Amino acid sequence: MLRRRAGGESVEQIQPDLVILTGKRKGLNPSVACIYRTLAEHAKREVYPEAVEQAHADFAALQVGEVPGPAPLYLTARHADRRELLVISP
């Protein structure tokens, strides 16, 4: 699909040649919207490869049972005032 798209074909021209291989729509053609979403996801992965690698590493850690701790919480003075109000209020 990427090669044909780079060759100048429109998504509407490529769509009839694509086939869904798994799932309840197996054997059918994907919608044009689905193809555009897939292209956008691919472009995002190309722009942020380190985020994809980190997500894969985090997923692998979860599968092994290593659950990462919570992210540190940084409160500004404005947030701290509101937090005190929430804790003190009945």
Question: How would you summarize what this structure contains?
Answer:
This protein has helices spanning 2-6, 11-14, 32-47, 49-64, 77-88. By secondary structure, the protein is mainly α. The N and C termini lie far apart (59 Å).
Commentary on this structure:
By secondary structure, this protein is mainly α. Helices cover 59% and strands 0% of the residues. It is built from 5 helices and no strands. The model has no long low-confidence stretch (mean pLDDT 80).
Taking pLDDT < 50 over at least 5 consecutive residues as the criterion, the unreliable ranges are none
- The geometry reads as elongated
Structural class: mainly alpha
The biggest beta sheet, please? none
How much β-strand is present in the residues? under 5%
- Quote the average pLDDT: 80
Distance between the termini: 59 Å
Please give the number of β-strands: 0
